[in-house]
Recover the amino acids of this structure.
């Protein structure tokens, strides 16, 4: 028997539950000239949305809507990512997921019966560089964003250009290889960690360097053991000063050491990612790049759209930014017990990603650039590939659905840039 009167019937109480990621499909008629789609009639289906793929005779494969021009979901003109020549009036088909938008309280009427929410998605394969392709920041600047595989470049209705993902995901920042793998001709030139070396371009202050091997020859580095990583400061093309990774001074004696290898690493930098979540809330996160070459650092917040990625300074290596399999949940889940069912890859048994793959919603308020995702995240037990379906049944507490529901109870605290 139901324990509460609203377990089976919620009457006219307001709540925030009732929307879910859905596939918008439409049949339209019109034409395409260059990158301009002209819709003269909506024949059936839902309104057009950003990121929707357009198919039809003469339309370039994988064309999708990047911006509204005179159209707002119905007849009018739109911008596509690819150029086509589909003249005359032809029938075309539009398909693709729609964002959830920033929700307001809604009359829930009957449901959600049993207070459960079904999240049903087929995430695409993660890509290491589908948001920002390889580039080497020489100073504090914004990375150039380029939509790669499983990402789309679209213009929001407010005019903001964004990279839009298939589902909300945390991002990864990957440090590439240094301009040179090692330094050559190294000599110790002073008592405070000063060194010289064969002229080498591309070095930056803050870059890590690992010294390894058995110290011989002349000169000394107090506290050195094989291996030790230092920070290069006061860098020029031929000189630098060593400090410890904690930023402390290094005591040295001048000379020419032998038996050592000087392997260059990265100058780790704070990368500030800005964008929007699935509900259109502005958000940002600081991800600090790795001090090791060819190493990825994963973020914690799930982005749906990205507007910019700013680096705090030079890195000395290439940087790329892409997606992870850390998927953002559509509702606030603060305890694994609310994950009633996790189905993945057409398997009857619950997905074995389990608790270790689930990170509960971060309820810190206000949210900051370093707090976790406000709704929580989940990593499936095997890599996403655009074929494996994830079906998650989320049990909803009373604060998320029903007469006592709140926005925070359903969707988590506001993102750090939300009003």
């Amino acid at each position: 028997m139901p324990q509460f009167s609203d377990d089976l019937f919620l009457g006219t109480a307001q709540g925030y539950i009732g929307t879910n990621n859905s596939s918008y499909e439409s049949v339209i008629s019109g034409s395409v000239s260059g990158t301009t789609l002209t819709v003269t009639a909506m024949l059936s289906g839902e309104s057009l949305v950003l990121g929707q793929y357009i198919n039809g005779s003469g339309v370039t494969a994988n064309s999708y809507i990047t911006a509204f021009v005179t159209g707002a979901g119905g007849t009018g003109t739109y911008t596509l990512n690819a150029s086509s020549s589909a003249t005359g009036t032809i029938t075309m088909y539009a398909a693709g997921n729609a964002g959830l938008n920033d929700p307001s309280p809604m009359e829930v009427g009957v449901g959600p019966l049993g207070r459960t929410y079904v999240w049903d998605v087929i995430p695409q394969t993660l890509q290491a560089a589908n948001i920002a392709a390889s580039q080497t920041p020489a100073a504090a600047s914004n990375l150039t964003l380029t939509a790669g595989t499983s990402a789309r470049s679209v213009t929001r209705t407010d005019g903001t250009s964004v990279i839009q993902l298939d589902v909300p995901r945390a991002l990864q920042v990957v440090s590439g290889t240094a301009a040179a793998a090692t330094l050559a001709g190294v000599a110790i030139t002073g008592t405070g960690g000063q060194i010289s070396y064969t002229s080498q371009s591309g070095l930056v202050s803050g870059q890590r360097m690992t010294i390894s091997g058995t110290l011989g020859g002349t000169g000394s580095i107090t506290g050195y053991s094989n291996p030790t990583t230092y920070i290069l400061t006061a860098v020029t093309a031929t000189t630098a000063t060593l400090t410890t990774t904690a930023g402390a001074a290094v005591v040295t004696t001048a000379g020419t050491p032998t038996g050592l290898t000087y392997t260059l690493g990265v100058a780790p930098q704070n990368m500030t990612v800005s964008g929007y979540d699935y509900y259109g809330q502005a958000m940002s996160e600081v991800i600090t790049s790795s001090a090791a070459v060819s190493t990825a650092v994963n973020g914690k917040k799930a982005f749906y759209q990205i507007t910019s990625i700013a680096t705090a300074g030079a890195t000395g290596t290439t940087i790329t930014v892409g997606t992870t399999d850390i998927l953002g949940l559509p509702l606030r889940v603060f305890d694994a017990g609310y994950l009633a069912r996790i189905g993945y890859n057409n398997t009857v048994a619950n997905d074995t990603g389990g608790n270790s793959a689930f990170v509960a919603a971060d309820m810190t308020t206000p949210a900051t650039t370093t707090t976790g995702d406000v709704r929580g995240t989940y990593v499936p037990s095997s890599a996403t590939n655009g074929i494996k379906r994830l079906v998650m049944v989320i049990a909803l507490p009373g604060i998320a659905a029903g007469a006592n529901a709140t926005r925070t109870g359903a969707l988590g605290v506001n993102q750090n840039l939300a009003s």
User: Anything to note?
Assistant: The longest helix spans residues 407-411. The radius of gyration is 26 Å.
